[in-house]
Amino acid sequence: MLAFIHWDVNPEILPGILPVRWYGLLFSLGFFIGTWIMAKIFVNENRPESDADAILIYMVVATIIGARLGHVLFYQPDYYLQHPLEVLQIWKGGLASHGGAIGIIIALYLYSSKRPDQPWLWILDRIVIPVALAGCFIRFGNLMNSEIIGRPTDVPWAFIFERAYVADPLTPRHPAQLYESITYLIIFFILGTIYKKKGHKLPQGILFGLFLILVFGMRFVWEFFKEDQVAFEATMELNMGQWLSIPAVLGGLFFFVRSLGKAGTPPPFPEVNPNEDKLKK
After folding, report:
1. 139 is annotated as contributing to ligand binding
2. DSSP state of 109
């Protein structure tokens, strides 16, 4: 008999004492560690470190609003048209990562429009590094919540999600949340390593394009291992997550190829060597 992993973790950190969930903690950690990483990047490129805090505000608001509206519009539009006030009840669940990505892209466009020294693609190339790490934390939070579970399987590392809201909670399933979480962690290291080696010499848009290709390309793959999120997906050849990932990957290919064509061209604003003053002294 196969020894499957019985997953019976309480989603609350201190049940009965403090109703704070692991998901909320990991979600918050993703933002705050991401802000710390962006602050380091800004210092490295001689940009105002305080701007990392401004980006945090843009990111939090954009992620929550975008992810919520993405779920409402992409997954349950009929339901929320009948219950419009429930759109605001985000504590009941229902956040779509594709909507969050759209929200972030729009928010950072607004952010960069006020800062000529931080063009839109320049900031996107840098923000995708901590965003990949945040995705790792959020998917691990989904695991702690026993949600977004995988399809039934008999692989030896299958999880039995005893707290999942399904008809057959004792059926072994793919830990799809863990697959995605590990994938995003690897992507974080890939993007971070490229940035560390090339830094500001990278053509604008290349890391952003690579992020879209890797994240949503792998999202397309892992959707084959997941249970459908909503009932209407059962009638679809590809589920909603996969259909939404296709334009994201195509967009990533556009920015990646476009940036390769501009490799070697000077940046649209003067780069500053953070060690310049030290060298003069």
Report:
1. yes
2. H
